[in-house]
Design goal:
The complex is a heterodimer of chains A (about 575) and B (about 120). By secondary structure, chain A is an alpha+beta fold. Chain A has 7 helices and 29 strands. Chain B has a single domain, classed as 2-Layer Sandwich (Ribosomal protein S3 C-terminal domain), CATH 3.30.1140. In chain B, about 30% of the residues lie in helices and about 35% in strands. The two termini of chain B are about 20 Å apart. The relative contact order of chain B is 0.24. The chains are: A alpha+beta (about 575), B alpha+beta (about 120). At the A-B interface, strand 1 and helix 1 of A face helix 2, strand 2, strand 3 and strand 4 of B.
């Protein structure tokens, strides 16, 4: 603050002696304490003091003056009459018209406007605007949109009890023959570690995902469960103890019959499949012990037939169990009654014939498919000679004619491919499941180097797939015990008219290529063998060398002659 | 000795307690007239009181040195006792203390004026 006090002082009073005296301690002020006042106050401890230091901002919006626009159409049938002409009066309009026609510019305007108008009028007359065209052509199918969506999830109701992290992994899914429900078997892989883990398998109704329609209680872990194609209520399953068991849904949860352990497989039963028979009660089973057994449901005390999966090349060798290849998946096509196929644990696919007499006739075909166990094996429903196999990281399509290699194969995927199935309605479609929970739809007519659509269905790996007979739904079982019902878009369900011809052409082409390659490979091998045998005659060498030397000398002479001539 | 010039008798050279007291009361009234005690404003108030007192005092245009102190105390029930002792020239110098209070606080302002 600016406080200035300018004062004057007489010189005579400069340096005056101050007459000091003491003013004793005087009270300035005294306020007595008042306890009553203290009661009006409350001790506040602790005291929170918020402090904020931030930039202060403010917002302000400004806009210029806006002009309002509207867009309207106007119908201009006839107009442009000046204000003084009464439009309703025919005479006045007539008079006005005549006046205009007498105008000079009228002629010029009319002449310049009429050609254009003529052109448009004639154009309009030529083409009828209101006619519908192209009615005789068929409607083009709309642009392809492949999509897959999960319609429903059926969760293992016993999950969370024994599984720890999730449920028991799904070990098999099978639709009932009427397509209204499906049977799911769960197999806790560490069943020997947790003997009290629930063993139940369920039959679900496709409509209700809340709880299964029925529970089946096997005596041991159920690894494969199939529905009988003739009878809705009958199911057959393969157990981890090597036995096979049969259920009748009307009877209850316990098996209606089970094979005795001494007649059953020596190791667990990996796959069970129903066979075409008059009664619809015969099925066969296979497992890692390398033997396929045929059973009749009416009498499960002993198998009706047995075959050791040991491929022998001459009829003198006997098949032995010691050399048998473990079976990992079975395949059977009801339209070819006596033939079946078996996928083994070391990657071979072996074709079998029940009616064979000698061992070579019984297992006539063998294909080297994968580097690990074959996980899925299925014939194409319309092209019975071709079948798909799923193994290590690839999906392969084989043709029965080409024994050496697959006809079509997918590039190795990032994760293991765990299962695959053909679509029953769309000829070229196969659905493959991967270990990271993705469903890949491969359409062989569109792209062969990558799936047409790959969708992540679940977080846990997907293990089994079974397509519904209608072709639109697929049930995928996952490692956590959940079954995901997935619906395919129409474009993935239907086949076009010439799909069959195109697919035949594709497969033909591929198999021809393979056969040509096979033939060439055989030729090369033959030549190699001949060369080995022929190398004993070493006298072939010197004449060749002499001829070589002669040729070299001749060439040198020629060159010298040319150079001299230059 | 007889002091020839009795400047002390001149109005200018005397500390007039009544005037100063009036000035102080005015200053307080203007600064913290109708307010209740607020801890975060006390700083402002004391400065305001002191400043306004001082500016009014200098307006008197007297050849004086002034010392102004201001104490604001919340009415909490506590007691306060202040005293002062001075060594000056009794004729020319003086002091004035004013106590002002309202329902929630006391304000005690002391002004010491020392003649130059």
């Amino acid at each position: 603050m600016e406080l200035v006090n300018a004062y004057t002082k007489k010189r005579s009073s400069f340096g005056r002696q101050p007459l000091f005296c003491e003013q004793g301690p005087a009270l300035c002020d005294s306020v007595p304490s008042d306890p009553a006042a203290q009661r009006g106050y409350v001790l506040r401890n602790p005291v929170h003091q918020p402090v904020q230091h931030g930039p202060r901002t403010s917002a302000h919006t400004v806009n210029t003056a806006r002009a309002e626009y509207t867009t309207t159409g106007s119908n201009h049938a006839e107009g442009g009459w000046p204000k003084d002409v009464n439009v309703l009066d025919p005479e006045a309009t007539q008079r006005y018209r005549r006046k205009i026609e007498k105008d000079e510019n009228y002629i010029h305007c009319a002449m310049s406007l009429s050609p254009g108008m003529d052109h448009y009028v004639m154009q309009n007359n030529a083409i009828d605007m209101y006619q519908t065209y192209y009615t005789e052509l068929a409607a083009q199918p709309p642009l392809e949109r492949c999509s897959v969506r999960t319609v429903n999830v059926y969760r293992d109701p016993l999950a969370g009890g024994g599984g720890g992290g999730g449920g028991r992994p799904v070990s098999s899914v099978a639709w009932t023959p009427d397509g209204a429900g499906f049977a799911v078997a769960y197999a806790a892989m560490d069943a020997h570690l947790a003997p009290r883990a629930p063993l139940d398998a369920f039959v679900w109704d496709a409509e209700s995902a809340a709880r299964p329609a029925q529970t089946l209680r096997p005596p041991a872990t159920l690894l494969d469960l199939q529905c009988s194609p003739r009878d809705v209520h009958v199911l057959a399953g393969g157990l981890a103890s090597g036995q096979v068991a049969v259920w009748d849904r009307r009877r209850g949860a316990a098996p209606a019959g089970a094979s005795p352990p001494h007649a059953a497989h020596r190791e667990l039963v990996r796959g069970v499949l129903f066979v075409n028979s008059k009664s619809g009660r015969e099925f066969f089973s296979g497992g890692p012990d390398g033997v396929c057994k045929w059973w009749d449901m009416r009498d499960l005390s002993a198998p009706t037939d047995e075959m050791i999966v040991d491929v022998v090349h001459s009829s003198f060798e006997a098949q032995s169990r010691a050399r048998a290849l473990g079976v990992s998946v079975l395949e059977y096509e009801p339209t070819i009654p006596t033939r079946f196929m078996v996928g083994t644990e070391n990657g071979l696919v072996v074709g079998g014939n029940r009616k064979g007499k000698t061992p070579t006739e019984k297992l006539p075909a063998q294909f080297e498919a994968h580097f690990g166990p074959v996980r899925s094996l299925e014939r194409n429903p319309s092209f019975l000679k071709n079948f798909l196999t799923v193994g290590d990281w690839t999906v392969r399509v084989f043709s029965e004619d080409c024994r050496e290699s697959a006809v079509l194969w997918s590039p190795p995927q990032r994760r293991r491919v765990t299962a695959a199935a053909w679509s029953p309605t769309r000829l070229s479609l196969l659905l493959a499941l991967q270990a990271d929970g993705r469903l890949a739809a491969w359409d062989l007519l569109r792209r062969q180097h990558e799936p047409a659509l790959a969708v992540r269905v679940s977080v846990e790996p997907l293990l089994r797939i079974k397509m519904h007979d209608g072709g639109a739904l697929a049930a995928c079982g996952s490692g956590a015990g959940h079954v995901y019902m997935v619906e395919l878009a129409q474009s993935l369900v239907q086949s076009d008219k010439n799909d069959k011809a195109l697919l035949t052409a594709v497969l033909e082409r591929e198999s021809r290529r393979e056969r040509v390659l096979e033939a060439r490979a055989r030729e090369l091998r033959l030549k190699l063998r001949q060369a080995e045998e022929g190398s004993a005659a070493a006298s072939e060498e010197p004449p060749d060398e002499r001829a070589l030397a002669d040729a070299a000398a001749e060439y040198a002479a020629l060159v010298r002659r040319e150079l001299a001539a230059l | 000795m007889e002091v020839k010039e009795c400047n002390d008798l001149a109005e200018e050279n005397q500390f007039i307690v009544d005037d100063v007291s009036k000035i102080i009361k005015e200053a307080i009234e203007n600064s913290i007239g109708g307010t209740a005690y607020q801890h975060n404003k006390v700083n402002q108030w004391t400065s305001a009181v002191v400043e306004s007192c001082l500016s009014q005092l200098t307006k008197l245009q007297k050849p004086y040195k002034y010392i102004v102190t201001c104490t604001i105390m919340q009415k909490n029930g506590a007691g306060l006792h202040t005293a002062s002792s001075c060594f000056w020239d009794n004729n020319t110098d003086g002091s004035c203390t004013v106590r002002w209070e309202n329902k929630t606080m006391y304000c005690i302002v002391s002004v010491f004026g020392l003649g130059i």
